[in-house]
């Protein structure tokens, strides 16, 4: 190979490595460039945080709140600003029931390549809607699709906001997602002290996830677990 071809090939390989690294960084559940990202907490205590993404949506909000109330469990809801605007009543029901509410962006777009101004707008508008519901607790952030790169983490660290992902995601397995018993079995099998469980329960397409909630809670309790909010879980860190 001539020297110039060799250097072009080496250059392309280097570019590929950088692109792959960038892509991994965008998608990583454990790492981000700035600020704090948490996907679980290392603890010996048998505690698990139950988190619900997206919405609120009418109907399923009431359904999941009823299930949580019956088990006397507090969960963390990562809500979308545009959905809170459409459904202020459901947002208020979640706040009034004493659950934790997190910021899951305003428009639920991928925020990887967003401008600084757009990132700020997405977060501040959503924070304001959370506060309008009467919710007074801490506001954690969860990036839509778990994706983030430079601007979003930089802004979050600037605002001292913690990003929260998850270490338990039964719905990501196609053979499990449609079956509530399979979802429950997966969670009970994989749950570890300090885990953060992600479920989507607001949409009709995720009926199996909603139906799995009581079994998951009862099963975890039977194994000696206590269900806590994400902020309560974070407070257990050394
Ligand atoms: Zn989402």
UniProtKB/TrEMBL annotation:
Gene3D superfamilies: Glycoside hydrolase/deacetylase
One GO biological process term: carbohydrate metabolic process
GO molecular function: hydrolase activity, acting on carbon-nitrogen (but not peptide) bonds
Origin: domain of life: Bacteria
Any matching Pfam family: Polysacc_deac_1
InterPro entries: Glyco_hydro/deAcase_b/a-brl, NODB_dom, Polysacc_deacetylase_ArnD
Cross-referenced CDD domains: CE4_BH1302_like (cd10956)
NodB homology domain mapped to chain residues: 46-228
Name the UniProt record assigns to this protein: Polysaccharide deacetylase
Lineage: Bacteria, Pseudomonadati, Pseudomonadota, Gammaproteobacteria, Enterobacterales
């Amino acid at each position: 190979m001539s020297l110039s071809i060799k250097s072009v090939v080496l250059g392309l390989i280097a570019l590929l490595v950088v692109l792959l690294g960038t892509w991994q960084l965008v998608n990583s559940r454990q790492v981000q460039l700035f600020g704090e990202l948490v996907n679980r907490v290392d603890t010996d205590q048998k505690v698990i945080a139950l988190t619900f993404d997206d919405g609120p949506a009418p109907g399923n909000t009431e359904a999941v709140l009823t299930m949580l109330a019956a088990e006397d469990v507090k969960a963390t809801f990562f809500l979308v600003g545009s959905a809170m605007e459409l459904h202020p009543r459901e947002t208020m029901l979640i706040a009034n029931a004493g659950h934790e509410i997190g910021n899951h962006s305003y428009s639920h777009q991928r925020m990887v390549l967003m401008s600084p101004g757009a990132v700020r707008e997405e977060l501040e508008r959503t924070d304001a809607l959370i506060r309008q519901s009467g919710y007074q607790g801490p506001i954690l952030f969860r990036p839509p699709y778990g994706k983030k790169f430079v601007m979003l983490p930089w802004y979050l660290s600037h605002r001292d906001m913690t990003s929260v992902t998850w270490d338990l995601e039964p719905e990501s397995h196609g053979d499990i997602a449609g079956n509530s018993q399979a979802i429950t079995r997966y969670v009970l099998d994989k749950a570890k002290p300090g885990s953060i469980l992600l479920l989507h329960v607001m949409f009709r397409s995720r009926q199996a996830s909603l139906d799995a909630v009581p079994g998951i809670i009862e099963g975890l309790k039977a194994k000696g677990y206590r269900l806590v909010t994400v902020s309560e879980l974070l407070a257990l860190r050394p």
